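Changelog entry: the Riboflavin synthase record was regenerated in this release. Current contents:
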Amino acid sequence: MFTGLVETIGKVVEITPIDSGIQFTIETEWENPDLKIGDSIAINGACMTVTEFSDLGNLFKFYASFKSLELTNLSRLGEGFAVNLERAMSLGQRFGGHLVQGHVDGMAKVISRKQIEAEVEEFWVEIPEELQRYFVKKGSVTLDGISLTVVDVKDGNIQLILIPETMEKTNAGSWKKDQRLNVEVDVLAKYIENYLSQRSGN
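Regenerated structure tokens:
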């Protein structure tokens, strides 16, 4: 389980195709490095497993299967690309953001980006049609592993207002028009939908 509060940005330093997918090597710096083999870590919001790591924790590897590559933007990564990183929650830590599972539901597309105030930027992002029913104004969404608030919803697109803190500490600063982002809808919306459908028998 994650919170959508990105801890640090990593850089893809090596991509190695293997029989069943791709192995990625990521370089980063943790404030308190404690990686272990088998740890869960969100890479652009997709929950992956650490398969190797350096003693200092500044290099680690993970494997993405062909199915994961199909469902996420990990297949679009190249060497030098920046990725958002968050280690799994630990019991007793403060809980910010919102409940994030690391289960990517699909890929959204950046429609527009513009500066609306000093260092404050507005994004409009197109949501896949099959996921649009889960979005409401002031609701939560996870994009590339970042917990964000939906400002407005219009014609299948959502509006986001990103502050300097978000732009500096995540890869959102590099988002461009037509870029694909991993999207995970609010899990509470899924539970509500399932509950209501069971009650109605539909």
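The helical segments are 66-71, 164-169, 187-200.
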